[in-house]
Write a structure and sequence with these properties.
Layout lengths: L4 E13 L4 E13 L3 E5 L6 H9 L6 E6 L2 E2 L5 H11 E4 L11 H11 L4 H14 L15 H13 L5 E5 L7 H18 L2 E5 L3 H5 L3 E6 L2 E7 L2 H4 L2
Parallel strand pairs: 3-8, 3-9, 6-7, 7-8
Antiparallel strand pairs: 1-2, 1-4, 4-5, 9-10
The protein binds adenosine-5'-triphosphate (ATP) and magnesium ion (MG).
Adenosine-5'-triphosphate binds next to strand 2 and helix 1.
Length: about 240
C-alpha cells in the first residue's frame, strides 16, 4: 500500500448557522488518510461523523480550512465542477440504501455511468462486473421493494463502485440490517477493498464493523480523540 495521503483535512471547522443557535460539530480538525486505507470512523451520536463524510464527498463545504482529495481542493470547487468531480471520484453508500424505487437493481447501478455519458456497451459491461462483485446477478431485474434490506444495500454498494471511484464513503451501511445481513455487507466491503484497493471510509456504531477496518478513528465533540490501529489484516479472517 502506498502511504501518500489521498485525503487531507487541514484545520477544518464546520459550523451550521441556524436561527438562534450555531452548531459547530467539527473544529480545527486535522486528519490524513492514506491511499488504499480502510478506515472506520466511530463516535457518539452528534459527534460530527456524517458532517465529516459529507465534507469528504463534497456534499457540504467547511466553514474554514481545507479538504484536499487526490490533489483536488474540493472545498474550493464550484457546484458544477464539484458534481462532476464527485461522480468520477467518490462512491457513497447510505444507511437507508437510497435506491430509486422505480428502477431495477441493474438500472440503479447504471445511474452513475449514465451521468458520465458512457457508451451503452461499456455501461452494460461495467454494470455486469459490479453485479457479479456483489453477488446479485440473479436479482438484476428486481425492483428495490422486491429485495431484502441486505440485498438492497448490496445494490447500493454496486452502484458506489461501478464507476471505479478511488474513494468509497459509507455512512452506517449496516445500520438498518439484522446481524446476518450486516455481517454479509461488511464481508463484502472488506472483500471489495481487498480486490479493488480503493480508499474506504466507513462511519459505524458497530464494534464488529470496526474489526474489518485497518484503522479506527474516534471522533468526539468534533475532535479526534485517539487513533487506534487494528489487526484487521490477518486478524479477522
Ligand atoms: N444541516 C445541518 N444544519 C444544522 N445542524 C446540523 C446539520 N447537520 C448536522 N447538524 C448538527 O451537527 C451535529 C453533528 O451532526 P452529525 O450528523 O455529523 O452527527 P453524527 O456523528 O453523524 O451522529 P449520528 O451518529 O447520530 O448519525 C449535530 O448536532 C447536528 O444536529
Ligand atoms: Mg450520522
Amino acid at each position: 500500500m502506498s502511504t501518500d495521503p489521498i485525503i487531507q483535512i487541514d484545520t477544518v471547522t464546520k459550523t451550521f448557522f441556524s436561527k438562534g443557535e450555531d452548531v459547530t460539530p467539527l473544529s480545527d480538525l486535522d486528519l490524513e488518510i492514506a491511499q488504499g486505507e480502510f478506515v472506520a470512523l466511530m463516535g457518539p451520536s452528534g459527534s460530527g461523523k456524517t458532517t465529516l463524510l459529507h465534507l469528504l464527498a463534497g456534499i457540504d463545504k467547511p466553514t474554514a480550512g481545507r479538504v484536499v482529495i487526490a490533489g483536488t481542493e474540493v472545498s474550493k470547487l464550484g457546484s458544477r465542477a464539484l458534481a462532476r468531480w464527485r461522480n468520477r471520484h467518490v462512491g457513497f453508500v447510505f444507511q437507508q440504501y437510497n435506491l430509486v424505487p422505480v428502477l431495477t437493481a441493474r438500472e440503479n447501478i447504471e445511474l452513475p455511468l449514465l451521468l458520465m455519458r458512457m457508451p451503452s456497451a461499456d455501461r452494460d459491461r461495467k454494470v455486469q462486473v459490479a453485479l457479479d462483485a456483489v453477488g446479485l446477478t440473479d436479482r438484476a431485474e428486481h425492483l428495490p421493494r422486491q429485495l431484502s434490506g441486505g440485498q438492497q444495500q448490496r445494490v447500493a454498494v454496486a452502484r458506489a463502485i461501478v464507476a471505479g471511484p478511488e474513494l468509497i464513503l459509507a455512512d452506517e451501511p449496516t445500520g438498518n440490517l439484522d446481524e446476518k445481513a450486516a455481517q454479509s455487507v461488511l464481508g463484502l466491503l472488506k472483500a471489495l477493498h481487498e480486490r479493488f484497493h480503493q480508499t474506504l471510509v466507513m462511519v459505524t456504531h458497530d464494534p464488529r464493523a470496526a474489526e474489518v477496518a485497518e484503522r479506527v478513528i474516534h471522533l468526539d465533540k468534533g475532535r479526534i480523540t485517539d487513533l487506534e490501529e487494528t489487526m484487521a489484516h490477518g486478524g479477522v479472517e
